[in-house]
Amino acid sequence: MANAGDPHPEIRLVGLTKQFREVRAVDDVSLIVGSGEFFSLLGPSGCGKTTTLRMIGGFDQPTRGAIELRGRDVTGDPPDKRPVNMVFQNYALFPHLDVGENVAFGLRRNHVPQEEIARRIGDVLALVNLSGYEKRKPNQLSGGQQQRVALARALVNRPNVLLLDEPLGALDLKLRKRLQIELKRIQVEVGITFVYVTHDQEEALTMSDRIAVMNRGRLEQLGTPEELYDRPATRFVADFIGTTNLLHGTVEALESGAATVRLDSGDLCRIGRAGRRVGEIVDVSVRPESVGVQRTNGEARGDDVRATIQQSAYLGAAVQYQLRTTGGVAITALAPKSATRLETGQVVTVTWPVAEALVLGAGSPSGMEDSA
């Protein structure tokens, strides 16, 4: 895990900026990646994550800022002078070479003895579960197998850091989920630092030790998967990581342990009191799994949220309800499949524990426009 006090972390980015003519693709990004971390750069298309990865690898030069690897400034060094390797989304395998020769390519360029090459090819193909595939050509392999060959080719050179640019993006969902587990296993087994670029939130949450969420070229929030999901710092992070209900309103009253918020729609709801003041304008995030939905019994408090079920969807382990409040706010709720099923058109009461209503910081706007 990264430690801000470590004088020589695996990677240190300081004020990293990349300008493409009038577009600032990466804007003053500073972060530290520790040795042995599985670190992900996560964000929508055009947020600057791939450009950041390419600058770490030396494929793009920053307009401003510095890149350090284990305390050495490598900002001006070409890719072959940095102790990193990169795995691309399209794998970039040589079609005329078999698997063994694809994996051996970097070793031969570095004049590694043949006996050592054979041993290292065998070891790395065993690591990625491709033993016995040495003589196959890339066109004889599935997409998942080609991805493993590309990974083996990068790992065989024993880099300090492996950079991965959406390597699972071209695979079908079931295979992608299986290879997420395999990638994490391999990373733990080899013990080196992985820096992984993805726009897939579930993928990042599944594999990462820490995640840097990027938006419009800037670092929006940095934290563990749990921190980002349970305590998003901004509206953008709350909306981008998983699914949430975003509510906007004004604190109207304070009581013991809770505050009453009047939403822009006119609906009233309750949040935690701590740090709140009457008249304060707040953005609130409530995860669907925290939303309780009950049939109305004719008795309702003034701050109960009333809603109508517009749609339900059976998801296997849970039932998802799409609701519309009396004031017109759309709310998503997730209920266990063992609970009593509610019908479309039914009027219900919507509640949540005040501790699950997270007040967000101002942060960046929630738009996801491409920046480059």
How would you summarize what this structure contains?
Helix content is 23%, strand content 34%. The chain is built from 8 helices and 20 strands.
Features:
372 residues, alpha+beta, 5-stranded antiparallel sheet, 8 helices, 20 strands, 23% helix, elongated, disordered C terminus
Question: Could you spell the SSE succession in H and E letters?
Answer: EEEHEEEHHHEHEHEEHHEEEEEEEEEE
Low-pLDDT sequence parts: 362-372
How many DSSP H or I helices?
8
Please give the number of β-strands.
20
What percentage of residues falls in helices of 4 or more residues?
10-25%
As a percent range, the share of strand residues is 25-35%
List the helices and strands and how they pair.
Blueprint: E1 11-20, E2 23-33, E3 38-42, H1 49-57, E4 64-69, E5 72-73, E6 84-87, H2 99-109, H3 114-127, H4 143-155, E7 161-165, H5 173-190, E8 193-198, H6 201-207, E9 210-215, E10 218-223, H7 225-230, H8 235-240, E11 245-255, E12 258-263, E13 268-272, E14 281-286, E15 292-295, E16 305-314, E17 318-325, E18 330-336, E19 347-351, E20 358-359
Parallel strand pairs: 3-8, 3-9, 6-7, 7-8
Antiparallel strand pairs: 1-2, 1-4, 4-5, 9-10, 11-12, 11-14, 12-13, 14-20, 15-19, 16-17, 16-19, 17-18
What would you note in describing this structure?
The chain has 372 residues and is α+β, with helices and mostly antiparallel strands. The chain has helices at residues 49-57, 99-109, 114-127, 143-155, 173-190, 201-207, 225-230, 235-240; strands at residues 11-20, 23-33, 38-42, 64-69, 72-73, 84-87, 161-165, 193-198, 210-215, 218-223, 245-255, 258-263, 268-272, 281-286, 292-295, 305-314, 318-325, 330-336, 347-351, 358-359. The strands form 4 sheets. The chain has a 6-stranded mixed beta sheet, with helices on both faces. The chain has a 5-stranded antiparallel beta sheet with strand order 13-12-11-14-20. It is elongated, with a radius of gyration of 25 Å. Residues 362-372 have low confidence and may be disordered.
